[in-house]
């Protein structure tokens, strides 16, 4: 692998920052369009279809409308923090994407360019640290408005995001235990050589998915902006672009969380059942595997491989974005006490128990001499699937899996109570 010169590295970094930021903003624009089209399909409506073909120019029209709208500034609001709220809300979501690898390395005449803005050796820890800062923007927006409903929305956001941040972090511990590091590029390479982590860590994936919904304030966890109780919530006093920035931040968090789930549990940019994209970091370079004698095989990079892996990453991320939208227009909102109960009395103890279960299973397999490979992954998959089934049965409590018919028969068979 040819190393870039310092000047070429600086130019490549600037191009990647500009390209990723532009692509992310365009993706946010059309995530709003996708939300409206998918919700219209679910509710048997047409959705946006006037501005441009299939309504594709509707996000641009909405952006222009928000820019030229009159901006209100409440007289009793704390002006500095009122302006800082939307800024602090959107910045963590955009900055977090910097450590997510989105394609295979790109070969150029000047050297190989890694398809990641910043390959930090503490990638997962960086995401947890920066991602948790989003709560400050929402809380500041609610508190600085000097509105009781906005304040309650900010308080709800703080309580909810702190509660599920614990479960989110604990659900990532089994991933780090299995990978042996916290660098996202290494995790992608590890999944290329074996199973995607969604199989051996299925319960961890489910816990992370639930926590990600709560962290992005999406239904059924949209308590900070519950219009039935709080008018609209923490952004009640906002208008124009400051109002839009909160929703830009929400969709940015959704896309970043979707990309993170694709990277941690679905192999990132790895294309399944194809070994042409298996590039393993090895002693400062990339290899595609080892010979029978244990010698490293040099990786054969190409532009087409980079484009194909970029497409695979985008498809996986889009899958989770559509899942976010589908859940929002399918499930009703939780009550506030249900949100807190799920976070502290279900997610936290389950995540702790799962960390101990995965750690114990890995220790037992090591003692039995089962080396890392298909057998190791299948054994861990079996244990995780059993744990996932038990967790689903516990949450179900006979409502869906068992079905309503046995409960109805039991109720009819019970003797009637007499006054």
How many strands, which pairing sense, and closed or not: the largest β-sheet? Answer: 3 strands, antiparallel
Distance between the termini: 84 Å
Structural class, by secondary structure, is mainly alpha
Alpha-carbon Rg, integer: 24 Å
Provide the helix percentage: 55-70%
> How many domains is the backbone divided into?
1
The strand order across the widest sheet is 3-4-5
Mean pLDDT: 85
Count the beta strands.
Answer: 5
Secondary-structure element order, N to C: HHHEEHHHHHHHEEEHHHH
Name the poorly predicted regions.
none
Strand content: under 5%
What is the number of helices?
14
How would you concisely characterize the structure shown here?
With 419 residues, the protein is mainly α.
């Amino acid at each position: 692998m040819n190393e870039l010169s310092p000047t070429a590295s600086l130019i490549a970094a600037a191009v990647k920052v500009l390209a990723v930021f532009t692509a992310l903003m365009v993706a946010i624009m059309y995530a709003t369009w996708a939300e409206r089209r998918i919700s219209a399909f679910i509710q048997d409506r047409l959705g946006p279809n006037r501005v441009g073909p299939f309504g594709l120019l509707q996000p641009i029209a909405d952006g222009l409308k928000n820019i030229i709208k009159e901006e209100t500034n409440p007289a009793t609001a704390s002006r500095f923090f009122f302006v800082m709220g939307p800024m602090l809300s959107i910045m963590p979501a955009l900055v977090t994407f910097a450590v997510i690898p989105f394609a295979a390395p790109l070969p150029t005449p000047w050297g190989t360019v890694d398809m990641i803005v910043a390959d930090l050796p503490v990638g997962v820890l960086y995401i947890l640290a920066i991602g948790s800062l989003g709560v400050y923007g929402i809380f500041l927006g609610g508190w600085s408005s000097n509105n009781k409903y906005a304040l309650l929305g900010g308080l709800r956001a703080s309580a909810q995001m702190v509660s599920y941040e614990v479960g989110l972090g604990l659900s990532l511990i089994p991933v780090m235990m299995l990978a042996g590091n916290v660098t996202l590029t290494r995790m992608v390479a590890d999944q290329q050589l074996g199973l995607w982590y969604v199989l051996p860590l299925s319960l961890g994936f489910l816990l992370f998915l639930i926590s990600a919904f709560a962290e992005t304030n999406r239904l059924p966890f949209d308590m900070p902006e519950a219009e039935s109780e709080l008018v609209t919530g923490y952004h009640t006093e906002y208008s124009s672009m400051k109002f839009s920035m909160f929703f830009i931040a929400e969709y940015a968090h959704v896309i970043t969380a979707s990309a993170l789930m694709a990277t941690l549990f679905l192999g990132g940019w790895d294309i399944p059942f194809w070994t042409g994209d298996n590039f393993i970091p090895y002693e400062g370079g990339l290899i595609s595997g080892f010979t029978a004698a244990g010698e490293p095989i040099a990786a054969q990079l190409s532009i087409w491989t980079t484009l194909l892996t970029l497409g695979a990453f985008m498809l996986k991320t889009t899958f989770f974005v559509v899942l976010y939208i589908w859940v929002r227009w399918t499930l009703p909102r939780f009550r506030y006490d249900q949100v807190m109960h799920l976070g502290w009395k279900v997610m936290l103890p389950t995540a702790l128990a799962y960390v101990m279960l995965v750690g114990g299973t890995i220790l037992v397999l090591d003692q039995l001499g089962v080396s890392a490979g298909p057998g190791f992954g299948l054994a861990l998959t079996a244990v995780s699937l059993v744990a996932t089934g038990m967790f689903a049965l516990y949450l179900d409590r006979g409502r869906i899996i068992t079905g309503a018919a046995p409960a109805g028969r039991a109720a009819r068979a019970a003797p009637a109570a007499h006054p």
